[in-house]
Design brief:
By secondary structure, the chain is of the alpha+beta class. Helices cover 32% and strands 34% of the residues. The strands form three sheets. Strands 1, 2, 4, 5, 6, 10, 11, 14 and 16 form a nine-stranded antiparallel sheet that branches. Strands 3-7-15-12-13 form a five-stranded antiparallel sheet, with no helix packed on it. A hairpin with a 2-residue loop joins strand 12 and strand 13.
Length: 226
Amino acid sequence: MMLHTPGVLTQQQVAEFRRALEGASWVDGSKTAGSQATQVKKNLQLSASSSVSEELGVHVLRALKAHPLFVSSVLPKHILPPLFNCYQGGGQYGNHVDNALRNDVLNDVQVRTDVSTTLFLSNPEEYEGGELVIEDVYGVHEVKLPAGDAIIYPATSLHRVEPVTQGVRLASCLWTQSLVRDDWRRTMLFNLDMTIIKLRQQLGDTAEVVALTSHYHNLLRQWIEA
């Protein structure tokens, strides 16, 4: 499932992030790519151990954990610390699939990457090119969202970032291990959760709404991986 998640960061937060990133020291982004991806990754990235990256990462995680669409669609078990990247002057990231496992060095744990998230920190009119292109069974999707918005998609998807031919594209990316490994099951749970919320708003906690809520939690019990 692909999901546009609006308003993860407020415009004030985006402005604060941009000011912090202006004074940051960037490094070669290929250093954090896998053996295949490093051949096609041409961008800049903040060192994950830098104070700026760690401070901004805390704010991103706090915002995502408070966003109902992220929580409902991803069902996060473990979220890796966010990375921050910069594309300019033809920078791009060719077709690749994210590594199945990544190390969370801050917490000394290995994480299965079920879900990828890209949080946009530049507005579309600030740069040319730079579309995030995601390929799945339903076709090819180009994503270029307003600053502060995020796109959530399965980490199993083939994807790329098109060359940025003008301007600067700033973004944050991160990976999550979900409580529910299977994307189709997560999609069904998300759709059911959204339906329950709408029915509750329209009807209140009727017997039927309570029954659907019970069904949701029983499915979650069946599919969750502790």
